[in-house]
Amino acid sequence: MIEARDTAVLPKTLEEFIGWEPEDGFKYEWNDGELIKFVGMNKTQVFIYEILNQLFIEKGFWKSGTLISEYDVQLTGIQMRRPDIAYLSKEQIKRTKQGEDEIPEFLIEIISGSDNANKVEEKTAEYFKAGVKVMWLIYPENKTIHVYTSRKQVQICTDDDTCSAKPVLPEFELSVNSIFA
Fold it and tell me: Which among 139, 79, 75 has a CA at the least distance from the CA of 108?
């Protein structure tokens, strides 16, 4: 919860939020006037990001785009989210340089023990409504990955099961074991 003494400096509009730099060490998302406070990636999440990024580079996908951690995604005129990992194509990166907002087509959220299941589902719905085509929910504690290609299409992967970023990155396929190695 945000302390009362901080309310004078909190943004009241999305425009203010975009230019705002919090000084309390936390990160925030914006959802229709609501500030959503969270901490950045923990050590486990950073480790998983590093493995995914390394596999992404080794398989040559850096030629088509990049994986970005905690990228600001403006879903609508009233929502800005920060997924743990987002893929942007080279074309999308060029458009962001020109000031355009880009919706990543492939996102990854690494679920921690403090994540609220209802809030994760809410974000999933928002992401797909905005144009995301593939979303992975990685559950480190259970060593499972839920691969969504829509809100109604999900594959739950464990052990040697293959997770795919199809149709965005059809050849970006990894086994669950390779991510949790």
Answer: 139
